[in-house]
Amino acid sequence: MQRLTQRLWSHCANWHVGDLAWQRFQHVGRESEWQFELWERDGEVAAWAWEQRGEDLYLQVDPACADLADEVLKRFPGREVMILDAEHHLVAALERHGYVRQDGEYQVFMTHDLRDLPEVEVPEGFTVRPITEADLARRVEVHREVWHPSRVTEESYRNVMAAWPYRADLDWVVEAPDGRFAASCLIWFDDENRVGELEPVGTHPDFRRMGLGAAVCHGAMRALRDLSAEQAIVYPFHGKAAEEFYERLGFRPYARTLNYSR
User: Fold this and answer.
1) Region for 160 from its dihedrals, namely left if φ exceeds 0, alpha if ψ lies in -120 to 50, beta otherwise
2) Secondary structure class of 5 (helix, strand, coil)
3) What string of pLDDT tens digits covers the 262 residues of the chain?
4) CA distance 131 to 156
5) 73-78 contacts at long range (C-beta below 8 A, 24 or more positions apart)
6) Do the bridges between strand 127-130 and strand 171-175 make them parallel or antiparallel, or are there none, so unpaired?
7) Cβ–Cβ under 8 Å, residues 183 and 245
8) Distance between terminal CA atoms of the chain?
9) Are strands 231-234 and 195-203 parallel, antiparallel or unpaired?
C-alpha cells in the first residue's frame, strides 16, 4: 500500500505514506474493524482499499489503471468514501456507481515551502527538541492530553515508532520547566518525493497561547529541511482553529477533500 502511495504522491493525491502508518498503528486491538484488499497489475500494486467498521472506505487507485476503481466499488458497495477533489478518475467512478457528493465537514490540504523558516523561539525554561526512546511515556502523555479521549497507548506508540517511515529525529516536543511535554509535532518524511506530513500536532491544554505549537512545528520542519525535504503538508478541517493556526505558520491550501455516499 505504501509503495503505491509513494509512487503516486503529488498535489493531486489524497494519501501520503505517513497517513497509512499513523492510521494503522496509532491504536491496538482494532484489527477486527478493518479489511484490506490489494489489486495488482503487471506485477505491482495498482489499487488498494481499506474498509473500516463496514461503513467507511478508504481507497487509492493508480490513474493509469482507472478501471480498477470500478472493481473496488463493486467489492465494497455502499460505503462512505472520502477522496481528493483532484482525483478526477475516482469522482467519475463514484458517480458511475450512483454515489452523490455530500455536504459537511471537509479537510483542506495545505503546503509549506521549507526554504524560508523562522528561528525557533520559546519562553525561558522551555526546550524544543526531538524525542528519544526514554521519552516514550511523556510523549504518549502529551498526545493523550491533547486528543482526550485518546486510544493511543505506550504499546501502540511503540508500534508507530517501529513503522516505516517513522523517524525519531522528526518527532519533536517542547519540554516545559517542570519536565512535562507541553507540545508535540510528528513529521512523516517521504524521502523519494521530498515531502513531509505533519501528523499529529498539538499543545497540552495547560500550555496553550504561548506560541509553543508554532515553535515545535518550526523546529520539526527545520529538521525536515535538513534531510533535503522541499515541502511540508498538513490536512486540517476547514473552518476549525487548526486551519487558522497553519495559515499563520505560512501553509497555503492546494486541494480539499470530497465526501461521497450512495
Assistant:
1) alpha
2) helix
3) 999 999 999 999 999 999 999 999 999 998 888 999 999 999 999 999 999 888 999 999 999 999 999 999 999 999 999 999 999 999 999 999 999 999 999 999 999 999 989 999 999 999 999 999 999 999 999 999 999 999 999 999 999 999 999 999 999 999 999 999 999 999 999 999 999 999 999 999 999 999 999 999 999 999 999 999 999 999 999 999 999 999 999 999 999 999 999 9
4) 16
5) 73/97, 73/99, 75/37, 75/49, 76/49, 76/51, 77/262, 78/262
6) antiparallel
7) no
8) 26
9) parallel
Q: What's the one-letter identity of residue 223?
A: A
Burial per residue of 242-256, b for 16 or more beta-carbon CB atoms within 10 angstroms, e otherwise: bbebbeebbbeeebe
Q: Which amino acid is at 103?
A: D
18 CB-near residues (< 8 Å, 6+ apart) = 165, 187, 188, 189, 190, 196, 197, 199
